[in-house]
């Protein structure tokens, strides 16, 4: 068939449907950024994603926490050491060909201490991990009520351990 005889759907340029991929952008905002301005930095990162055709799926707003180790970054003409930062993340779907543009824009964001852009598997995309909620769960202290019966069981167990040690010393 010639182009003149082809149905309209088949004629002309081919339309290639690309499957969207899921990504996560995790980042540390510098602790020198005022707490009130952190939300604006976060919104700027989300705008970079949406302006490049991405669709935001789930996010965790940045919150300040102590880093596991010091991070050194060259700022304002000297190396500076940071012991805390605002950590947050955002997940999104986008055409994989647009990732380079997002990476370049995020790398130019001067308020970031560091960032990591990761492609997610389907399982990872379906099960986000909420970092700040997990930290809060670790801080919770659970009080256990001890009644006389429970205290007696604990006391008996500790006596058995000391009896076992005594009997093994007697055998030696």
* Poorly predicted runs: 166-172
Annotated CATH homologous superfamily of the domain at 21-139:
Ribosomal protein S6/Translation elongation factor EF1B
Radius of gyration: 28 Å
Q: What portion of the residues fall into strands of 2 or more residues? A: 25-35%
**Fraction of residues in H or I helices:** 25-40%
Order of helices and strands: EHEEHEHHH
What is the 3D form?
Answer: flat
Count of β-strands: 4
Distance between the termini: 99 Å
Strand order of the largest sheet: 2-3-1-4
In DSSP terms, counting alpha (H) and pi (I) runs of 4 or more, how many helices? 5
For the sheet with most strands, the description reads:
4 strands, antiparallel
The mean pLDDT is 81
CATH fold name of the domain at 21-139, please? Answer: Alpha-Beta Plaits
**Structural class determined from secondary elements:** alpha+beta
Assigned CATH class of the domain at 21-139: Alpha Beta
If classified by CATH, what would the architecture of the domain at 21-139 be?
2-Layer Sandwich
């Amino acid at each position: 068939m010639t182009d003149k005889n082809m149905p309209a759907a088949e004629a002309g340029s081919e339309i290639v449907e690309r499957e969207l991929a899921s990504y996560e952008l995790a980042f540390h905002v510098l602790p020198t950024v005022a707490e009130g301005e952190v939300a604006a930095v976060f919104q700027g990162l989300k705008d970079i994603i949406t302006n490049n055709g991405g669709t935001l799926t789930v996010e965790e707003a940045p919150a300040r926490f102590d880093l596991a180790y010091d991070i050194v970054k060259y700022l304002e003409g000297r190396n500076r050491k940071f012991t805390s930062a605002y950590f947050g993340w955002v997940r999104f779907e986008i055409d994989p060909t647009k990732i380079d543009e997002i990476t370049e824009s995020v790398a130019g964001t001067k308020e970031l201490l560091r960032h990591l852009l990761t492609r997610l598997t389907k399982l990872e995309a379906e099960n986000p991990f909420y970092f700040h909620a997990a930290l809060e769960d670790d801080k919770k202290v659970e009080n256990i009520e001890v009644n006389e019966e429970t205290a007696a069981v604990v006391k008996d167990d500790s006596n058995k351990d000391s009896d076992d040690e005594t009997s093994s010393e007697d055998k030696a």
